[in-house]
Amino acid sequence: MKLLNELKALGYNVILEGDRIRASYTLPGVPPVDRVKPLLDELREHKEDIIRYLKEDIQAILSMPLSQFKKSGLLCRVRCQHLGGEEVFIASTEKEAAVGISEGLIVYLADELVELVKRKPSPDVMLQIHQAKKILHGTLIQSKDREKV
User: Fold this and answer.
1) How far apart are CA 106 and CA 92, in angstroms?
2) Is beta strand 12-17 parallel, antiparallel or unpaired with respect to 75-80?
3) Cα(66)–Cα(110) distance, rounded to whole angstroms?
4) For 97-118, how does the pLDDT look when each residue is reduced to its tens digit (9 = 90+)?
5) CA-CA distance, 108 to 99, in Å (whole number)?
6) Which end of the chain, N or C, is surrounded by fewer C-beta atoms within 10 Å?
7) 99 and 123 in contact (C-beta within 8 Å)?
8) CA distance linking residue 131 with residue 47, whole number of Å
9) Average pLDDT in the 136-141 region?
10) Are 24 and 98 in contact (CB under 8 A)?
């Protein structure tokens, strides 16, 4: 959608939270008000259409293969039941990850998800990985089974 692309080009991240649209400025400094205000007014004016578009977009994202998501430039906020209902961000690249990190959320990159899908950790191991990410603010590079002693 042209309006959302224009806002993104100006440094805005537009997300859907329930039935609310949230636009947040992600670049350093102050946004160019003269260019942004008309776009935000248009966003408000066409709120229902934008919500419908974003909901359709969410369904497309959820069915997207990770290989495609990795190239998409997308950021998704999800509530994960396996992590006690905690909200996390799923980001295609480091650039998108910065938005989630700035909001204090744990971010999983597409490459991390590929590794997790490949290894299929148990729920307990996944929880341990998540706790490590929370404490260390790190990125999962590789997961291996521990050798049994």
Assistant:
1) 14
2) unpaired
3) 6
4) 887 777 778 888 888 888 888 8
5) 12
6) C
7) no
8) 37
9) 72
10) no
Are 85 and 79 spatial neighbours (Cβ–Cβ below 8 Å)? yes
DSSP the chain: -HHHHHHHHTTEEEEEETTEEEEEE-SSS---HHHHHHHHHHHHHTHHHHHHHHHHHHHHHHTS-HHHHTTTT-EEEEEEGGGTTEEEEEESSHHHHHHHHHTT-EEEEHHHHHHHHHH---HHHHHHHHHHHHHH--------PPPP-
Amino acid symbol at 23? A
Q: Calculate helix-pair angle for 47-62, 33-45, nearest 10 degrees.
A: 90
pLDDT category of residue 19 using cuts at 50, 70 and 90: confident
List the domain boundaries for the chain.
2-62, 67-136
| 13 closest CA partner among 92, 114, 106, 130 | 92
- pLDDT for res 149: 46
